[in-house]
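thought: fold this chain, then report.
action: predict
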Amino acid sequence: MEQIDQVVYPHKIHPSKQEGLDTLEGRITPKKLRNVKQAKLAAVLGITQGRVSQLVNAEPNNLTVLRKYIQEAGRRDSVLLLLQKEKVD
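observation:
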């Protein structure tokens, strides 16, 4: 019976594992990106603050260019960790 419960209800048996996975499941929205300083974002992305400014100014309304750069650079997880650390909602 215990084995069936482990398979059917894994979140009840190991709730701490689920909490750790949820931290990187958020979305990178323009609102969240605007609330983070460009210098910190640049440090996480490994580029200069000036380059971040160029990416922001390329499309200032919804930051599509910046979000696409984050995805292509493979830095989504590090940006999400920054957003979590900064408690940006």
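thought: worth noting. Residues 27-86 form one domain.
final: tokens above.
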